[in-house]
Amino acid sequence: MAKKIRLVATDMDGTFLNEAGAFNHKRLARLLKQFEDNNIILAAASGRALLALDKLFAGFTDKIAIIAENGAFIQYKGETLFEQHMPKEQYLQLIDKILENPYNRGKELLLSGKKAAYILKDSPQSYIDHMRLYYENVQVVEDFENLEDTIFKITTNFAPQDVRNGENWLNEQLPHMQAVTTGFASIDVIQRGSNKGFGLDHLCQKLVIPSHQTLAFGDNLNDWEMLRFAGHAVAPENARSEIQKIADEVIGHHNEESVMSYMEGLVNG
């Protein structure tokens, strides 16, 4: 690659992480030292909450940037650079609209906050157990009316065949919000304009890095804006077809640590 890369942003699930949601810590430690020597910054960009990403990258958070909640929260070396939350009145109205969705399959929704994540008590136990794989400090509550927390987003599940229809319905009903597919059965509802591309743009402005000196990895539709913003876009072979079409390169499967290998190539020739 001829142009100098100064910032590398990577999605987590289905991209940087393997199917077990893990990565090689020793390999990353070596890579971050090489990135530092070459004045390159690594940004972890995810729909996951900051609590989950801080735990995932324990021991590394003082060396990297984090774009959490699909762009609603940005942190660099442990310092908060930006956050955008939902007022209570807004997220309560959103919940009602999500439950009205004709493609909705029940109370499979979660509110992601700064202190915890919240799921209704009458949600299916299978859903509660599944979301605990991706969110830290999941609290099961009677209702959402009395939460004492800052809420960044709402996430909800659909049957895989209904995800795109459910997403489109929500976007038609909620012009001030944005519903984005984050997985093959999951949708995040966030403030319109708040996405990973916005987060990466904001981070670049803070660090005075032009977009053409950024590189981004992603596999799903909530990575679209980030890949469009970056000077160079890379997708793993397991990425959605829509993402592969806009990528400059398609590399190996995420279970092969292809993203880590590509990043190592940036500093090792």
Map the helices and strands.
Layout: E1 7-11, H1 12-16, H2 25-37, E2 41-45, H3 50-56, E3 65-68, E4 73-76, E5 79-83, H4 88-100, E6 109-113, E7 117-120, H5 125-131, E8 138-141, E9 151-157, H6 163-173, E10 177-181, E11 186-191, H7 196-207, E12 214-217, H8 224-229, E13 232-236, H9 241-246, E14 249-251, H10 258-268
Parallel strand pairs: 1-2, 1-12, 2-3, 7-8, 12-13, 13-14
Antiparallel strand pairs: 3-4, 4-5, 6-7, 6-9, 9-11, 10-11
Helix pairs in contact: 2-10
Report on the architecture of this protein:
There is one protein chain. This protein has 269 residues and is an alpha/beta fold. It folds into 2 domains: 7-83 and 194-268, 3-Layer(aba) Sandwich (Rossmann fold); 88-191, Hypothetical Protein, Haloacid Dehalogenase-like Hydrolase, Chain: A, domain 2, CATH 3.30.1240. It is built from 10 helices and 14 strands. The protein has helices at residues 12-16, 25-37, 50-56, 88-100, 125-131, 163-173, 196-207, 224-229, 241-246, 258-268; strands spanning 7-11, 41-45, 65-68, 73-76, 79-83, 109-113, 117-120, 138-141, 151-157, 177-181, 186-191, 214-217, 232-236, 249-251. α2 runs parallel beside α10 (258-268). The longest helix has 13 residues, at 25-37. The protein is globular. GO terms for molecular function: magnesium ion binding; phosphatase activity. This is Cof-like hydrolase. Pfam families: Hydrolase_3. It comes from Streptococcus macacae NCTC 11558. InterPro entries: Cof, HAD-like_sf, HAD-SF_hydro_IIB, HAD_sf.
